[in-house]
Amino acid sequence: MARQWERMIESKAGIILVAEENGQVVGFLVFRWWFGWNGWLEVIAVREERRGKGVGTRLMRALIERAREMGYRKICFAVGLGEAPISFYEKLGAQRFGELPEESGTLTLYHIPVK
Q1: Which of 26, 62, 102, 104 is deepest in the core (most CB within 10 A)?
Q2: CA 73, CA 82: separation in Å to the nearest integer?
Q3: pLDDT bucket at 36, cuts 50 / 70 / 90
Q4: Contact 96, 109 (CB under 8 A)
Q5: 3-state DSSP of the chain
Q6: Could you count the other beta carbons within 10 Å of the beta carbon of residue 14?
Q7: Which residues, including other chains, have CB under 8 Å from residue 44's CB and lie 6 or more apart?
Q8: Are 73 and 94 in contact (CB under 8 A)?
């Protein structure tokens, strides 16, 4: 997976944002083109001890701004059972648009409009 992200950076095929505090990485996200003027949020991760302190929100707001500048219309993503609470994404304007069956359960599909 890491090599895939390295290639994405090298080819400028996506956006990778990193949050740092006191010289240490405390979070990051990976976003790529999906189809049309929509993008796909591959992953967002925040160190456990920094969760609930605004790191993820700052990363997502920076992504929304960057995606807007690049002409994207939506940031799409999937949430499975046991993953980040959807309330995190809903405060950023996330809207449900479908489901995707998986071997491990159902993924719920969401998008955040980029205005």
Answers
A1: 26
A2: 28
A3: confident
A4: yes
A5: CHHHHHHHHHHCCEEEEEEEECCEEEEEEEEEEEECCEEEEEEEEECHHHCCCCHHHHHHHHHHHHHHHHCCCEEEEEECCCCCCHHHHHCCCCEEEEEEEECCEEEEEEEEECC
A6: 17
A7: 27, 28, 29, 30, 56, 59, 60, 84
A8: no
User: Measured between alpha carbons, how far is 79 from 63 in angstroms, rounded to an integer?
Assistant: 18
Q: Which of 77, 25, 22 is nearest to 46 (CA)?
A: 25
Report the distance separating Cα 68 and Cα 115, nearest Å.
7
**Chain-centre distance for alpha carbon 11:** 19
The arithmetic mean of pLDDT across residues 37-50, rounded, is 93
Cβ(73)–Cβ(67) under 8 Å? no
Provide the residue type at 83 as one letter. E
What CA–CA distance (Å, rounded) separates 79 from 107? Answer: 5
